[in-house]
Design a protein that fits this description.
309 residues; alpha/beta; 5-stranded mixed β-sheet; 9 helices; 14 strands
Length: 309
Amino acid sequence: MIKIEGITAFVAVAEAGSVSEAARRLRLSKSVVSERLAELEKTLGAKLLHRTTRKLTLTEDGVAFLERATRIVHEVQEAASDIAERRGTLAGPVRIAAPVTFGRLHLGPALYAFLGEHPDIELIMDLDDRRVDAAADGYDAVIRHGTIQDTRLIAWKLAPSRRLLVASPDYLLRNGRPASLAELDSHRGILYTNRGNFDWRFERPEGPVIVRARSALRMNNGDMIADAAIAGLGIALLPAFIAGPPVQAGKLVEIDVGYRAQPEFIYMAHSEGRHPSVKLKAMAQHLKRAFGNPPYWDAGAEAEVDESV
């Protein structure tokens, strides 16, 4: 009979990339994890892992087994969580991915209070500015800023997100302050690589317009884009939760070109085929209350939110 402990050990090793890291995550000794893997392989009659002193890789059978094994482990964890939730307790693992800057500045602090209220929840949070695949990478949910283009995701709006066109006082002194969308074409732009060349979208009465600024620098992290703008390297379009503090400190200046950047939102999204747990829904509601509308980082700004999603 195949034991769930062996499947759990295999999935942990495959995700961690090593037996020692899997043992740390499972809070077991390396020898116990190795024993469970060996027992699983013996029961299956197949080798699942290639192990050398330097590297651990999945065999062909291991690759084929991993997808279902991951689903089995998740289902068992969710079943245990459901039992706890029936008793009025939110418990069990929740794995989410989020952008680095937003996670560090706002998501983490908001979730710490939630975890304090529900100590039986085990949160696994990965901060990464790339757009991870929620289903393929095994996440219960992902936090996104902007638009949700993946039709396989079901999204919940957590908060509106206003974006500001900003530059340093020194840059504007040297290059002039643009007063219209057309004038942006002649300026240097600090662009967010994860969004591509169509990121600078502005709202006009006749419809949205895309401005393609002359690229001075392309980066995949909001903090670094703000730092580059403060250093006077060009104009940046940044969310208020990043640009707000340096604007208030006078390190950056908000630029008015007659139109606002297209409004965006902070989302929590889960895979279409995965039923969201009670604890995930509770977490989303907590974040929505914690951020506010308008969000606390954008206090005083006008924000209209469509609550239908």
